[in-house]
Design a protein that fits this description.
The complex is a heterodimer of chains A (222) and B (276).
Chain A: H1 6-61, H2 65-76, H3 79-95, H4 105-123, H5 135-139, H6 147-153, H7 157-166, H8 169-180, H9 185-192, H10 196-221
Chain B: H1 3-14, H2 20-32, H3 34-53, H4 61-80, H5 107-131, H6 133-152, E1 159-160, H7 164-174, E2 191-199, E3 202-211, E4 214-222, E5 232-236, E6 239-245, E7 249-255, H8 259-275
Antiparallel strand pairs in B: 1-2, 2-3, 3-4, 4-7, 5-6, 6-7
Classes of the chains: A mainly alpha (222), B alpha+beta (276).
Chain lengths: 222, 276
């Protein structure tokens, strides 16, 4: 342009400015879009992965909730504590689910339920964690109770339940695992972290103790 | 085997955990020794009592619900970690970058900040969806499929008209509800027509809008108790899905236009329905 008046010059500058700005704004907006898209994409991927994890966790673990609750209920002897422990155990299990590659989901979950229960029992200073010597029961005349009488009373749900509730936690849990969950010695050993020989001897002691308490009850009733 | 050895193995025998040979030996001894036989019978009775007479505590319903909720919260907590520290739910609408305002602050940072806020808001709107991963996933797939099919098979509309007073009566006559039909051509979203669809187990109205060269399918059906009321954004396979709901209807907008266009569309649509 050979000759430009000041006014047109100004207009030209303004147009250029606007064009520059428009280009920048568009450019930056598309940049922001890419960032935004990347963030969304990342979150989508993460949440999709998490959802997938949760879905497979739920499919594998939710069916064992009754087993988990029953064990916690027998260990803690209290409905509310049992609920809290099972919820806590499910959260813990989900957090370490990536590390779980075994096939026995129930045994794995029960291990966590058991550990969580013991944490609570220890915190509450429960006195019945291991075998306790019960003066009252030993003082009673249970020697007079014959095996035939025990056989007769073994059908009495109230009586058996009372005796079971008196047992120390380690006996309650092993009887529950063996007879209510029908787990094998191998699985019980896995949950309790003890060798199979110990599972057998502990079961024998648990049954012996249950029989003793039952006999004491029967002699009291006489 | 003597009686002491039997006593040691009796429980293993009772639980069926011994090998066949040992089991056979114990069996023989129990037949011969009444004292051992009696002790075995007592233990068998005790075992049966524990498995049958004692209560088996089933997990209460409220515990099931508690666990499902806390698991859902556990995954949303990890998804959102690092997105923002403060209460995300306090911010509902995406922040917009205001145009034409020159400030000392660099555009780059504004854009980045906006992107982060938007991502946080989108994250927060996605949360409710996580509680029920199955159903929404499936619905999103259905919606995209329907959108793609409508463009593919040259079956975009059953009634092609930019006149909302033509489309609405047509849809009303075919459906058992009266979906709101609006022409937003004044705002750059001309109405192309309407279509019938079947989604998520009920009949739905599909309104077709155009945005430049792109199409938006807006699916409408009466809100049922199971429908989520929370605004949701889903991005998948290059499509964006935007969900919202007013008192009566559930809306899903599906398109390949960008999120901000879709949100703009939603706001216009909401404003206009509220005005009527």
């Amino acid at each position: 342009m050979p000759f430009v008046t000041p006014v047109t010059n100004q207009i030209a500058m303004a147009v250029t400015l606007e064009a520059d700005y428009a280009f920048d704004a568009e450019y930056l907006r598309s940049g922001a879009k890419i960032v935004k898209f990347a963030v969304i994409q990342k979150q989508e991927e993460q949440s999709a992965d998490q959802e997938h994890q949760l879905a497979s966790f739920e499919a594998m673990m939710l069916p064992h909730m009754d087993a988990a609750y029953n064990l916690a209920r027998w260990l803690l002897r209290n409905e509310q504590d049992a609920q809290d422990v099972v919820q806590e155990a499910y959260l813990r299990a989900f957090k370490s689910f990536r590390g779980f590659h075994g096939s026995n989901g129930r045994a794995w979950l029960l291990t966590i339920v058991r550990n969580t229960s013991y944490t609570l029992l220890t915190r509450n200073n429960a006195v019945d964690l291991t075998t306790t010597f019960d003066e009252e029961i030993h003082a009673s005349g249970q020697e007079s109770v014959t095996p035939a009488m025990i056989l007769e009373h073994a059908e009495d749900a109230e009586l058996v339940r009372n005796a079971m509730d008196k047992l120390p936690a380690e006996f309650r849990e092993i009887l529950t695992l063996r007879h209510q969950e029908s787990l094998s010695y191998n699985e019980i050993g896995e949950i309790l972290k003890v060798p199979i020989g110990t599972v057998m001897s502990r079961l024998a002691r648990a049954r012996g103790k249950l029989k003793e308490y039952l006999a004491a009850r029967i002699s009291q009733e006489k | 085997m003597n009686c002491q050895e039997i006593a040691n193995l009796r429980d293993g025998y009772l639980d069926g955990e011994l090998d066949a040979l040992t089991s056979q030996k114990i069996e023989q001894h129990l037949k011969a020794c009444s004292k051992c036989e009696e002790a075995y019978a007592v233990n068998t009775a005790l075992a049966r009592a524990v498995s049958q007479a004692l209560p088996y505590y089933k997990a209460p319903i409220e515990l099931r619900q508690r666990i499902r909720i806390s698991l859902g919260e556990a995954i949303s907590a990890t998804t959102n970690r690092g997105a923002a520290g403060e209460d995300l739910l306090a911010v509902r609408r995406p922040e917009r970058v205001r145009r034409g305002v020159f400030s000392e602050m660099s555009w780059n940072w504004l854009a980045l900040a906006a992107a982060i806020v938007l991502a946080a808001v989108i994250g927060s709107t996605l949360l409710p969806r996580l509680h029920q991963p199955g159903s929404d996933e499936f619905l999103a797939t259905q919606l995209i499929a329907s959108h793609v099919r409508s463009l593919m098979a040259n079956h975009l509309t059953d009634v092609a008209s930019s006149d909302q007073h033509t489309v609405k009566p047509w849809l009303d006559a075919k459906l058992d509800f009266a979906a709101p039909v609006l022409d937003l051509s004044g705002d750059g979203f001309p109405l192309i027509g309407g279509r019938l669809d079947y989604l998520d187990n009920h009949a739905a109205a599909a309104l077709v809008y155009q945005r430049r060269k792109h199409f938006i399918n807006l699916f409408i059906w009466p809100t049922t108790p199971g429908d989520s009321k929370v605004e949701t954004i889903v991005a998948r396979q290059g499509y964006h899905l935007l969900h919202w709901s007013d008192g009566d209807f559930t809306y899903w907008a599906v398109s390949d236009v960008n999120i901000s266009d879709l949100e703009n569309f939603k706001q216009l649509f909401e404003q206009q329905t509220a005005r009527r």
